[in-house]
Amino acid sequence: MLVRQKKIEKQKRITLTSKEISELLAEGIVTIILLLLLNVSITVILSGSETLKGIIWATKGAFAQELNTDLFWSLSKFVIPIFFIVDVSVLYWRLIRRYRQMQLRHIISELHFIADGNYDHRIPFELSGDLAKVVTSINGLVDSTVAAIEDERKIEKSKDELITNVSHDIRTPLTSIIGYLGLIEDRQFHNQEDLLKYTHTAYVKAKQMKLLVDDLFEYTKVRQPSVPINLISFDMAQLIEQLAADFELEADKNGMTIQVNANPASIKMDGDTEKLVRVFDNLLSNALKYGKGGKNIVIDVEKVGTEAVIAVRNDGPPIPKKSLDQLFDRFYRVEESRSQETGGTGLGLAIAQSIIALHGGYIYATSDNHWTSFIIHLPLKRN
Ligand code: ATP
Ligand code: MG
């Protein structure tokens, strides 16, 4: 998950420029003049209308008993307050409308500023009503767009890194192959034995390249968002016992023993066994390759709640603290020279992590003077 540094800007009110204030004043003055003219014309029309006078007198007759009619029908006491209320409302409505237009203009100019490449900037205005919602939506949109751009950049960068690493890792064995084949091509060998030695080295290096390409293929395959996962029901304890048996001979050659502790003896769960075997194969071959000097490999398989927890431990030399987090990065090797010697590509744990994540689980490593452990948590059931 991404952690993005967003510039927090203090909310502030929109401050109008002097030009906008004059615009607002002019709008107010023009509106007042227009309204006054309108009031005068209406008064003139009302006082001059004979029909209206007739209506007034007829109504006056009907209500004369209850009302002080002279006061009620007096233009100065009745019409002027109405004029005043209407005028103030119209003035307020026009000024507010103009003020909103100005706020919108400020928002648009902020948008232009962001669009000019200032992606850290957000519209900082403290507004109310619909405009506040517009600003929140725009800021949210800018946030998600910037996050998408950053993600895209990261993917691009990691692709470049991948190409650089692969080119580097392929170039090294390829240079050897070309070198040894060149010696053969130029007949720079003295006897059959030399010839066989050169072809053997070229063969070993070619195999190393094949291993890298296979690993890389596997890695890109499990990293795809739509990678198919073939879930079947199986017994994890049994699978681990089987794998331990497969590695026993090799462990024996290295002077190591493999011990499995399963609790309970049978742990039924769902998973893609072909992919999971790939994970445990790598963990066990790592324990054999890098656990030099150690004597024991222990695999604990446990059912804990709704999870299967598998710990693969070996008692070799510890992994430095600062390397523990990076172990799962592709091409990461704790000790470049030592790993080159053992022929690893540094992709095994990156592949393992992707496979475990595909199953909805997680993997991490711990290491101290006694044990180096790789601990996997896998949900028993997958929806
Ligand atoms: P690959 O598995 O792709 O053939 P690799 O074994 O070098 O190559 P990883 O399995 O990803 O790559 O392991 C990364 C590195 O982590 C190894 O090179 C090694 O330095 C370190 N490492 C892994 N397992 C252990 C272990 N059990 N003890 C000590 N170091 C380990
Ligand atoms: Mg490995």
Automatic annotation (TrEMBL):
Keywords: ATP-binding, Cell membrane, Kinase, Membrane, Nucleotide-binding, Phosphoprotein, Transferase, Transmembrane, Transmembrane helix, Two-component regulatory system
Pfam families: HATPase_c, HisKA
GO molecular function, one term: phosphorelay sensor kinase activity
Listed EC numbers: 2.7.13.3
Superkingdom, taxonomy of origin: Bacteria
Residues in HAMP domain copies: 98-150
InterPro entries the record matches: HAMP_dom, HATPase_C_sf, HATPase_dom, His_kinase_dom, HisK_dim/P_dom, HisK_dim/P_sf, HssS/ArlS-like, Sig_transdc_His_kin-like_C
Uppermost EC category: transferase
Chief place where the protein resides: membrane
Topological category with respect to the lipid bilayer: Multi-pass membrane protein
TM helices/strands, residue ranges: 21-46, 78-96
Annotated catalysed reactions: ATP + protein L-histidine = ADP + protein N-phospho-L-histidine
Domain called Histidine kinase: residue spans: 165-382
Matches recorded under CDD domains: HATPase, HisKA
Cell compartments where the protein resides: Cell membrane
Name of this chain's protein: histidine kinase
